[in-house]
Write a structure and sequence with these properties.
Helix content: under 10%
Number of helices: 0
Structural class: mainly beta
Strand content: over 45%
Radius of gyration: 14 Å
Length: about 120
């Protein structure tokens, strides 16, 4: 099993910053990649940022230069630092852990709400 728990969402004014945290751990699998997705109201879930076990990162074009994904391997934590937030960043943010074993497994956190007011 894999445990995924997000925290750190909230309400912030445009131009502000927030840091989301994801506690991802497993006694069964080795966690390698961890992703952050978001789902704006009435829209589909979309990939925001991803980080590999070697700390390589990738970002969606909409957040590149404003968001930073990082991880603390010792603490089994992944962070999403969000700066210069815009109203269009308003969404429920989910931490996602893909596991590749006999097949692919996808583990999701419960989500954390980020609301950016204009």
């Amino acid at each position: 099993q894999v445990q995924v728990v997000e925290s750190g969402g909230g309400l912030v004014q445009a131009g502000g910053s927030l840091r989301l945290s994801c506690a991802a751990s497993s006694s069964t699998f080795s966690i390698k990649a961890v992703d952050w997705y978001r789902q704006p109201p009435g829209k589909q879930r979309e990939l925001v940022a991803a980080i590999t076990v070697g700390d390589s990162t990738q970002y969606s074009n909409s957040v590149k230069g404003r968001f930073t994904i990082s991880r603390d391997h010792a603490k089994n934590m992944v962070y999403l630092q969000m700066t210069n937030l815009k109203p269009e960043d308003t969404a429920v943010y989910y931490c996602h852990v893909p596991i590749f074993s006999d097949r692919r497994y996808d583990y999701w956190g419960q989500g954390t709400q980020v609301t950016v007011s204009s």
